[in-house]
Amino acid sequence: MAIPIRFLTLALVILSVLLLSSSLGGVTAKETKRSEAEVQRMYERWLVENRKNYNALGEKERRFNIFKDNLKLIEAHNSVPERTYELGLTRFADLTDDEFRAIHLRGKMVRTSDPVIGDRYLYKEGDVLPDEVDWRKVQLFRSKIKETVGLNKIKTGELVSLSEQELLDCDRGGNSGNFGCLGGNAADAFEFIIENSGIVTDKVYPYTENDTAACKAIEMVTTRYVTIDSYEDAPHNDEMSLKKAVAHQPISVMVEAENMKLYKSGVFTGPCDHWYGNHNVVVVGYGTTERGEDYWIIRNSWGANWGESGYITLQRNFHNSTGNCGVAIRPFDPLMKGVLRII
């Protein structure tokens, strides 16, 4: 399967993140008039760095033209003084905007039932919150960006990597299911885990990158697995309540990510074209830069050769209640009363 995991990895990052309550890919070009030969050399190096190999006749040349267009956009953006963020030659530098949207932004905000909105993180006047929080500083966040960590570590002290492939194969179709690599919602993944009485580890059900495999029968009684009791929405359209929630644990959100394709570093301020959300991510912290720019720390699923080693800092304290790029529209998180079960 050529299309990489998107929402599934994020659902497990969220669950497991909550189970703890670059190379040329980051090179930024200065605005210069580059020769065709120089751009070609950059392209060849980028291909090696990102392990790209095109088999179709003429595809390498077609991708080179797209690469050149993206490079021009990068240089134009970065040439403007006082930008709060930089663009770079990420792993998506050979994709058009339409291709990027079709392949990587298939998350869905629509739910089939009324959400349960919890009030435990509702911000109230007089609440005292930390000035900054960064869950990445916890030791278990120092592993590779794909690895899953979270609330289970808080509850049990154990770090467990869960099976994305089980979600790919088994959480499918209907009004309540997801759609493999064609997109989905992390809340639906949580519902599957609840109804399935848990999810197994990567070791038991390894990732194969196959989007068409049948769901395997798993003997839960012989397999270590993680369960959750339920999940709930944090208060909607309220950045202060989101801040309160993140002060306690990482929180799942959806953002409008169409213009994040070439993000390299800094506080992303947009533009964001829509506000319905099309990509599942996890807010793992917040803070303020030395220049006074408030931001969210967001963990993505696009790999370490995108953004700040797989993370993006997004403008916080936005002028709209939705938060920038819709980050505060509908946060939610799983709940686990018990501990990791070993049956």
From TrEMBL:
GO molecular function, one term: cysteine-type peptidase activity
Keywords: Disulfide bond, Hydrolase, Protease, Signal, Thiol protease
Top-level division of the source organism's lineage: Eukaryota
Residue span(s) of domain Peptidase C1A papain C-terminal: 129-335
Domain (Cathepsin propeptide inhibitor) ranges: 43-100
Signal peptide: 1-29
One Pfam entry name: Inhibitor_I29
PROSITE patterns: THIOL_PROTEASE_ASN
Transmembrane annotation, as ranges: none
GO BP annotations listed: proteolysis
Membership in a protein family: Belongs to the peptidase C1 family.
Protein name listed in UniProt: Cysteine proteinase
